[in-house]
Design goal:
4-stranded antiparallel beta sheet; about 20% helix; alpha+beta; 7-stranded mixed β-barrel
């Protein structure tokens, strides 16, 4: 590349520097404008009664005493929330909505007695099977799978886990595969995600339906339980990460932020509930009258017209949240919970 004179070069450099500097400033002003202003005043509403993580999407939870918060969700060593899932022959994710038996799959991740993280799958009607997750990440190349229409990179967890899930779910040998999320970044947003709610690019987590953190108010669940006559309703019906004890029923409708210990979360949206709530998490049996969902529909529809158009008749119960304080903080059972 040549220049006709030094003055031309200097002028071009100054103009370029000015343009780059202006773009840099504009970018950072834009980024700053996207970050929510965090509250400085908080009201205590209760404490963290229970803490759950679900390593495999749609399978049984692991009960935790404490965990580290990350943008992808809860973490305890190699254990991460919704970091694995089951896919079909077309690499589309499947859930307990269609395969209720998945709710009885109890994952266990052992690291204390073995230098490698070992995932063991347990089910009342199946022999246990184990997968070495470190070996999976070291020997497999990422391949694409799909969650709610969004392509995500995953590692295949191997033939033994595939045969195990296939025999459990449809008695064949190769219909389903267990896969492990192959990125340290949140998955991409669905194109329609921000039509109503304000998600950022870090708010989708690894493999949850929408966001990495879900909180349920125990008092709201108890109120629903009193309204339903022929089944027992528990927080576990709603698959939360956090169970709040001590607040008043449905007070969560009016909160914008939640602080657990020193960790701050922004409420992105209410959690609109589906038929998964009608499957008993302990037996995997659907309720014949679609309870507690049908009762919930009678009094917990959204009042917001745009949200109602998006959610249809799905009722609200619980909060969908994203981390707004720095990753790496620790959350523990009995932590005080504050709201703003």
């Amino acid at each position: 590349m040549s220049f006709k004179g030094t003055s031309t070069y200097v002028t071009a450099a100054v103009v370029t520097a000015g343009a780059v500097g202006g773009a840099y400033c504009a970018y950072h002003l834009y980024k700053k404008s996207q970050k929510p202003k965090l509250p400085t005043e908080w009201t205590e509403v209760g404490h963290l009664k229970d803490l759950y993580a679900y390593p495999i999407k749609s399978c049984a939870p692991i009960i935790l005493n404490q965990a580290v918060v990350t943008t992808l969700g809860l973490k305890d060593g190699w254990m991460r929330d919704r970091i694995l899932m089951v896919v079909d022959e077309k690499n589309n994710f499947i859930t307990a909505r269609a395969y209720p038996e998945m709710l009885l799959v109890q994952p266990e991740i052992l690291t204390s007695t073995n230098p490698s993280p070992i995932l063991t799958l347990n089910h009342p009607q199946m022999e246990p099977v184990s997968v070495n997750l470190a070996e999976v990440t070291n020997t497999q190349k990422p391949k694409p799978a799909v969650v709610w229409g969004v392509q995500v990179p995953v590692y295949d967890c191997g033939w033994e886990a595939s045969e195990w899930f296939s025999r459990l779910l449809d008695r064949t040998a190769t219909s389903f595969r267990l896969v492990y999320y192959a990125s340290s970044q949140s998955r991409a947003l669905r194109p329609s995600t921000n039509e109503i709610y304000k998600f950022t690019k870090d708010d989708t987590g690894a493999l949850p339906d929408e966001v990495p953190y879900n909180l349920i108010n125990e008092a709201s669940v108890e109120d629903l339980d009193h309204r339903v006559s022929d089944c027992r309703v528990r927080p576990q019906n709603f698959r939360p990460n956090f169970v709040l004890a001590g607040a008043k029923a449905y007070d969560e409708d009016y909160w914008k932020f939640v602080k657990i210990g020193d960790n701050i979360f922004e409420i992105i949206k209410p959690c609109f509930r589906c038929i998964l709530t009608t499957i008993d998490p302990e037996t995997g049996v659907r309720h014949e009258k679609q309870e507690p969902l049908e009762t919930l529909k009678t009094y917990r529809q959204s009042d917001d017209p745009a949200a109602r158009r998006s959610a249809g008749t799905a009722p609200r119960m619980g909060l969908q949240m994203a981390l707004r304080s720095a990753p790496g903080g620790v959350i523990a059972k009995n932590d005080r919970i504050y709201v703003a």
